[in-house]
Design goal:
Oligomer: heterodimer
Number of strands of chain A: 22
Strand content of chain B: under 5%
Number of helices of chain A: 9
Radius of gyration of chain B: 34 Å
Number of helices of chain B: 7
Shape of chain A: elongated
Strand content of chain A: 25-35%
Structural class of chain B: mainly alpha
Shape of chain B: rod-shaped
Distance between the termini of chain A: 72 Å
CATH topology of the largest domain in chain A: Rossmann fold
Largest sheet of chain A: 7 strands, mixed
Chain lengths: ~425, ~140
């Protein structure tokens, strides 16, 4: 490892060398005398420069945490060399990690000394982040030479999205023949009362409703609604986003998708995921906690991939969209391709609901008066678009990032219960 | 003696320059390792509308071909929520509800402008139209 001459030393060398050459060329001894201290300074600096022997280790308290949580990273720096060295330490990190202290730390490391520096790390949003390696600039005495080193390993840090508690979910129109937590429309074995009917051969005695039988004089049995599960497919739109600073619609969309996945899996639904954007990723519907971790892992790698590719419904594998599945499209409704997909799925008879992650919170009007008019027109245009989707029978839940998702879903359920809208499909 | 004094002054000045240059801090490499902040992403729909409104102020063609369909969609949706249909609305009712300026743009069967290079919609007029639509 060889260090580099520092810029200031190069400057001094140029000054001294220039003055010396000028003195020799013009025959003026004063210029040579003037050059001497510069050259002495350069020689002294080079003589004192010793290659540093540093090792470092980065230790993170926890590698998995929630977005916004703090975690402490301990950076241990060891000087194995025989000389003291001045070091400037900075921790390389991915974009959405906030470090405290944020500025590089300058310290004097004595020979055979060990220093531990604690850095507070906070992921500003969910994602698979990385911390390290350590960017170290070691300086020789009087700053003659510098050595730029990368020490320590890159450490992975996974920040999971913050989720909300949901009391109410979008009720699927069609159920699957699995035991679940949704009250089905069919009659069968269950808890929820449906109706009574006269006894038929084959009915079990346990179903006999003795009160109804006594009132009507003949045997009547109780019919019940079965508790069933449904297939739910989360469609995450990653074509486009609106972003201001560290907050964007994709961040909120991932939070909504994680919340919905956990809530539906807790109700024993089969949940799948389609990341529909510039690149297409999917997870087939499945049950259980393992599926939740698979979905969240897939969500953490979601990103807006700019693409001109025109994706249609045929791009999605059939097994990912089982017949009768409830499709929850989490989208900011910003890209024509996602609008076309939503419309196309509805035209094919899919049970579809749009969770619109409002981009209005992540967009500010431009400075010109005409820009403010454009913003107002855009808001009106989005309302018209929402009405157009509702006219197709698609429930639209508008969700602002700082609000809870529950009320928006309640509005969708009210819309879906409305026969007036159903007839307009 | 004078020469020696001059040499001493030059040497002292050179040392002073060298020391002051040496004390200047160099650029921090670690600071340069900081990742860039994410770029703000403005929605393409909004950017398109901003450009459209600029063009719509100076071109009747832009108003008819691009701004009118948007205004028609918005007006239709908002009137439909009140149980009214723009395409079957009598002119007198339309003028009363939407105002003369907006009705002249969104009225059914509006002909293509004779002078396509004619002036478009002034900003105050457009603002008044938006106020009407927002009130609906």
């Amino acid at each position: 490892m060889s260090g580099a001459l520092s810029p200031r030393l190069r400057g001094l060398l140029a000054l001294g060398g220039g003055a010396l050459v000028a003195g020799l060329a013009t025959g003026h001894a004063e210029l040579a005398v003037l050059a001497t201290p510069f050259l002495v300074f350069v020689g002294l600096g080079l003589a004192l420069a010793r290659e540093p022997h540093l090792t470092a280790h980065i230790d993170v308290e926890r590698a998995r945490l929630l977005e916004g949580e703090h975690v402490t990273a301990t950076v241990t720096l060891v000087n194995d060399g025989a000389h003291a060295v001045e070091v400037e330490v900075g921790l390389a990190h991915s974009r959405y990690l906030a470090l405290e202290p944020a500025e590089p730390i300058v310290l004097q490391l004595m020979s055979a000394a060990t220093v531990a520096i604690e850095v507070s790390v906070r992921p500003e949003r969910w994602g698979a982040h990385s911390l390290g390696p350590l960017a170290v600039r070691a300086r020789a005495p009087i700053g003659a030479k510098t050595w730029d080193l990368h020490l320590g390993e890159r450490t992975a840090l996974r920040a999971f999205p913050r989720e909300q508690r949901l009391r109410e979910l979008v009720v699927p129109l069609r159920m699957q023949p699995f035991l679940g937590a949704h009250v089905g429309r069919a009659r069968g074995a269950g808890i929820e009362f449906a109706d009574t009917r006269p006894f038929q051969a084959g009915d079990v005695a346990r179903q006999v409703n003795w009160r109804a039988s006594a009132r009507r004089g003949t045997l009547h049995v109780t019919e019940r609604h079965p508790e069933q599960a449904s297939d739910v497919v989360l469609l995450l739109d990653t074509f486009a986003e609106a972003r201001e600073g560290a907050r964007g619609t994709l961040d909120a969309a991932v939070r909504a998708a994680a919340t919905l996945a956990r809530a539906h899996l807790a109700r024993r639904d089969r949940v799948g995921l389609v990341d529909f954007g510039g690149t297409l990723h999917w997870l087939e519907p499945a049950f259980g906690t393992a599926q939740l971790y698979r979905i969240i892992d897939a969500l953490l790698s979601s990103e807006i991939a700019f693409s001109y590719a025109w994706r249609a419904t045929e791009s999605i594998p059939r097994r990912v969209l089982p017949p009768g599945a409830l499709i929850l499209a989490v989208t900011p409704l910003l890209d024509e391709r996602s609008l076309r997909l939503v419309t196309d799925l509805r035209m094919r008879g899919c049970d579809l609901t749009v969770i619109e992650v409002s981009p209005l919170d992540h967009t500010t009007p431009g400075p010109a008066p005409a820009d403010r008019l454009a913003f107002r027109l855009w808001r009106l245009q989005r309302e018209a678009l929402r009405a157009r989707l509702q006219g197709l029978g698609i429930g639209v839940a508008v969700w602002a990032d700082d609000e809870t998702l529950g009320p928006a879903l309640e509005g969708v359920n009210a819309f879906r219960r409305s026969a007036r809208h159903a007839l307009r499909v | 003696m004078t020469l020696l004094a001059e040499i001493a002054i030059v040497v002292v000045a050179a040392v002073a320059v060298a020391v002051s240059v040496a004390l200047v801090p160099s650029e921090s490499r670690a600071r340069r390792h900081r990742p860039p902040r994410p770029e703000p992403a403005r929605p393409g729909q909004l950017v398109t509308l901003e450009r459209l409104l600029v063009m719509a102020r100076v071109s009747a063609l832009q108003v008819h071909a691009y701004l009118r369909p948007i205004l028609v969609e918005i007006a239709s949706q908002r009137l439909a929520a009140r149980g009214q249909a723009l395409e079957r609305m009598p002119e007198a009712t339309g003028r009363r509800i939407l105002g003369d300026d907006l009705w002249d743009i969104v009225r059914p069967g509006r002909p293509f402008p004779e002078n396509r290079h004619g002036p478009g919609v002034a900003a105050p007029d457009l603002e008044a139209m938006l106020e009407v639509l927002e009130r609906l």
